[in-house]
């Protein structure tokens, strides 16, 4: 009798243990589902769509590349179908970073008094001017000082940035000085200067035709324009005006100050040949 009672007590105990064990297993399984990428990143974009939007290939082809481990997200190989990514994630295909938007190129004829930055503390910026140019996340490539004017390029193409950050883009500036540039100083610039221990080379420099000798045309491949002021200040001149007249194959023709346009296919082809 006592033994039977022990058995009856034991059996419910086992059922309770089993029940608790089942609940524990369910609780363990639950987080695996909720921590999956698909569940936690519903607000993101599917990886195959991200790749297809970049123009690399179709969605179906993207699935194949993902399945074979050829896509890397934030440094990790991803082969999960349905994986979602955010726009801020770094996605690489075949070793090259890609964007979920087709390559976009916009050129602005920058007006004076506008900062080349996206900082709200700087007042009106070039990003404010080109805000309606494209839904793509374009950013300036290179810089122009607040009081500088002329051509400024915007793009979301990382491959373009990497290529021309290394080799530079040929830009022609119309520079006005506070006084006439001496011929011997013009020659020094032509031959190359050393500023702060670094050699500074310009592609070309000359007086502007039919203009006072204080107006100079200077062609250089640096992406910024502070180097221009540094060159002339080193020689004892103040820079009054800096205007970027050409940028690679792009000119200011038919582009009024303060306006922007998308690069033509012909211009993009010429950039690809540089």
Can you describe this structure?
It is elongated, with a radius of gyration of 30 Å. With 274 residues, the chain is of the alpha+beta class. The chain contains nine helices and 17 strands. The chain has helices at residues 2-34, 37-40, 47-53, 59-67, 126-129, 158-167, 183-191, 226-234, 265-272, and strands at residues 45-46, 71-73, 76-77, 84-85, 91-93, 96-98, 105-110, 139-141, 149-155, 171-177, 193-195, 198-200, 204-207, 215-220, 239-247, 250-251, 260-262.
Topology record:
Blueprint: H1 2-34, H2 37-40, E1 45-46, H3 47-53, H4 59-67, E2 71-73, E3 76-77, E4 84-85, E5 91-93, E6 96-98, E7 105-110, H5 126-129, E8 139-141, E9 149-155, H6 158-167, E10 171-177, H7 183-191, E11 193-195, E12 198-200, E13 204-207, E14 215-220, H8 226-234, E15 239-247, E16 250-251, E17 260-262, H9 265-272
Parallel strand pairs: 9-15
Antiparallel strand pairs: 1-4, 2-3, 2-5, 5-6, 7-9, 7-17, 8-9, 10-14, 10-15, 11-12, 13-14, 15-16
Helix pairs in contact: 3-4
Mean pLDDT: 84
Q: Helical residue percent?
A: 25-40%
% residues in beta strands: 15-25%
Q: Could you give a short account of the major beta sheet?
A: 9 strands, mixed
Instruction: Write down the Rg.
Output: 30 Å
Give the topology string: H per helix, E per strand.
Answer: HHEHHEEEEEEHEEHEHEEEEHEEEH
Got a strand count? 17
Total number of helices: 9
CATH fold-level assignment of the largest domain: Alpha-Beta Plaits
| Top-tier CATH class of the largest domain | Alpha Beta
Distance between the termini: 97 Å
General form: elongated
